[in-house]
Write a structure and sequence with these properties.
By secondary structure, the protein is an alpha+beta fold. The chain has one domain: Muramoyl-pentapeptide Carboxypeptidase, domain 2. The protein has helices spanning about 5-10, 15-35, 45-55, 60, 85-95; strands at about 1-5, 40, 75-80, 105-110, 115-120. A hairpin with a 6-residue loop joins strand 4 (about 105-110) and strand 5 (about 115-120).
């Protein structure tokens, strides 16, 4: 497992333990399946960072939302080093672990303005 910044490397021990397990599983899976390590690009996010990311989002302007990143339950992982087929396989594999609310996925591939990446998350609770 690699980190985009020392900040994320320093934060890894502070995240939700369920998220940590999923990150480790994903890293082992991609190493064994594709011979590639994952790179964590973001773990924690402040309210100010959340507001900056969604500053141009009209829905956010009306009804701002909190991010799982603000609670140690979200991780962004670089996606550009995986092919489209590998990305699809990662999404299929990781979404076998249910998020738990029936509305969200455990992992998704998206771009909120800072580049295409995987967003891995766990629901609040135990």
């Amino acid at each position: 497992m690699q980190y985009k910044s020392s900040q994320s490397e320093n934060e890894i021990d502070l995240i939700d333990k369920r998220l940590f397990i999923l990150i480790k599983f994903l890293d082992i899976f991609t190493l064994q399946k594709f011979g590639k390590q994952i790179t964590i690009t973001e773990l924690f996010r402040t309210q100010s960072e959340q507001d900056n990311i969604y500053a141009d989002n009209q829905e956010y302007k009306i009804h701002p939302w909190k991010s799982v990143h603000q609670f140690g339950r979200g991780a962004d992982i670089r996606a550009v080093n995986f092919t489209k087929e590998e990305q699809d396989e990662i999404i299929f594999m990781m979404n076998k672990y249910p998020y738990g609310d029936g509305k969200h996925n455990t992992i998704l591939l998206h771009d909120v303005g800072d580049g295409l990446h995987f967003h891995l998350q766990v629901i609040a609770g135990s």
